[in-house]
Amino acid sequence: MLEHYKLITVSHRSLDTRDLEHFMVKYNEEAGLIARLQAIKKASGQEEFLYLSTCNRVVFLFYGANDIHQRNMAAFFQLINPEIDDSILEGIDRFVVQYQGTEAVNHIMEIASSIDSLVVGEREIFRQFRDAYALCNQVNICSDRIRLVNKIAVKAAKEIYTKTTIGTRPVSVVSLAIQKFLSKKLPQDARILLIGAGETNSTTGRFLKKHGYQNLIIFNRSINNANALSQELDAEARHLGDLKGYSEDFDCIFTCTAAQEPIVTEEMFSSIVADHNEKVIVDLSIPHNVAKEVAQLDQVDYISIDDLRQLAEQNLALRAENIAEAKSIIKTHLDEFEQMFERRKVEKALSNLPREIREVKERAINLVFKEQIDDLPSETKDLIEEITSYMEKKCVAIPMKMAKKIVK
Q1: Exposure winner among 30, 178, 192, 334, fewest CB in 10 A?
Q2: What three-state secondary structure class fits 246?
Q3: Nearest to residue 338, comparing CAs of 109, 68, 44?
Q4: Domain map of the chain by residue range?
Q5: Residues 58 and 52 sit within 8 Å (Cβ to Cβ)
Q6: Beta strand pairing status for 300-304 and 279-283?
Q7: To the nearest 10°, the Cα dihedral for 26, 30, 34, 36?
Q8: Cα dist from 178 to 183, 193, 214, 304, whole Å
Q9: What's the CATH superfamily of 173-307?
Q10: Beta bridge partners of 99
Q11: Dihedral over alpha carbons 35, 41, 47, 51 (to 10 degrees)
Q12: pLDDT per residue over 286-299, tens digit each?
């Protein structure tokens, strides 16, 4: 039954992050995402499903006995994205990686502990993994089997962050983007637009403020969230809808939102640019918030997650020893998971045992031996009830104890 775990993933290892959008679940609001995930689970015929999307990967973890197009990834991703381009489908086997059984569980632990990330040691992926599990669990897309995977992945990641130096002086996608931005040597009075007020841009704003950049304007779909961040950064906050009418010029844009379509389109860009000076645009979104046409403009110095690869590879080289140590820890936890899985399988198989033994006891007292018991004195009846209740508990405990020994 361990083979019922199946993982399908596309990541930065096989393609540019801009192309990840072809493999992602498209939605407008969270309710739309939940509805899409429930539909995918139903169509896949699997018992459980976990979906994780980050800035450099998408992950589909299933548990179930049925086939889910493992031999036909084109069919699978047409289910995920009915509008996926034929050109992508034709070469899809070059992009998609599949794992099954313990290999799937092992890969989830590598993801949660950030040793398979674009930026090794980045803790943000751990938070994203936990949030993805919490959402899928909350809406009953996943349950007991994936709960076990979440439990062991969280345990392994925490141990890796505690016992190795992989998280020491942590590097993140945001910190690499800031390094790239600082290399542009913009003056500290440069006007910077932050599009989005989520975790990524909140961290970006803190970095910018730390480096002396304080001329910030925050645009966000939720003005309340924009106001909260603006108070922390001592910046101006505006609604995202006001961006198109913005006419005060700018030097740089940092953008990271959950929008499924580009926000900074060619039309939008031309409406907010007031001069011919070069504009730095840092796009940390997947799907990208900046249209290809804008990214390719001569006036734009465009930075995406893919442009951070060289810095990320330098970080990877520095953490090579950490990765080897982390994989050793994961191996230990994988062995633990196999035992945990078998133990849980026995527990589920014996889950009806207490009820069945109680029914035997009650049938004996209230039906089989009812006439004999009714003729006994009340003190004797009480003693019989006490003895049978004791036997009931022991009859439950003995097989449970034996089962636990078997799967150790």
Answers
A1: 30
A2: coil
A3: 109
A4: 2-169, 173-307
A5: yes
A6: parallel
A7: -20
A8: 9, 14, 14, 12
A9: NAD(P)-binding Rossmann-like Domain (3.40.50.720)
A10: 7
A11: -80
A12: 889 999 999 999 99
E strand or H helix that includes residue 44? helix 30-44
Among the ranges given (146-150, 331-335, 365-369, 399-403), the one the predictor scored with the smallest mean pLDDT: 399-403
Let me know: does 218 contact 247? Beta carbons within 8 Å: no
The pLDDT, as a whole number, for residue 35 is 94
Cα separation of 349 and 226, whole Å?
51
Looking up tokens 């004791």 gives 390
Class of CATH domain 2-169: alpha beta
Distance in angstroms (rounded) separating the CA atoms of residues 265 and 59: 28
Give mean pLDDT, residues 94-114: 94
Other Cβ atoms closer than 10 A to 295: 19
Residue in the structure block whose two tokens are 């033994």? 357
- Does residue 359 sit in helix, strand or coil? helix
Strands 252-255 and 57-63: unpaired
Q: What pLDDT does 403 receive?
A: 64
Return the SS3 of 100.
strand
Residues 250, 188: Cα–Cα separation, whole Å: 13
Paired residues of 254 in beta bridges: 194, 282
DSSP single-letter state for residue 290: B
The residues with which 280 forms a beta bridge, in sequence order, are 252, 301
CA distances from 162 to 104, 111, 150, 167, 287 (A): 24, 16, 18, 8, 33
pTM of the model: 0.78
| CA pair distance 116, 180, nearest whole angstrom | 22
The continuous run of DSSP H or E covering 6 comes out as strand 5-11
Nearest-angstrom CA–CA distance, 282 and 290: 9
Select the highest-mean-pLDDT range: 11-15, 116-120, 130-134: 130-134
DSSP-based three-state secondary structure for 92: helix
Spatial distance between the Cα atoms of 286 and 305, rounded to a whole number of angstroms: 9
In the sheet with 252-255, reading across from the earlier edge strand, the strands are 236-239, 216-220, 192-195, 252-255, 279-283, 300-304
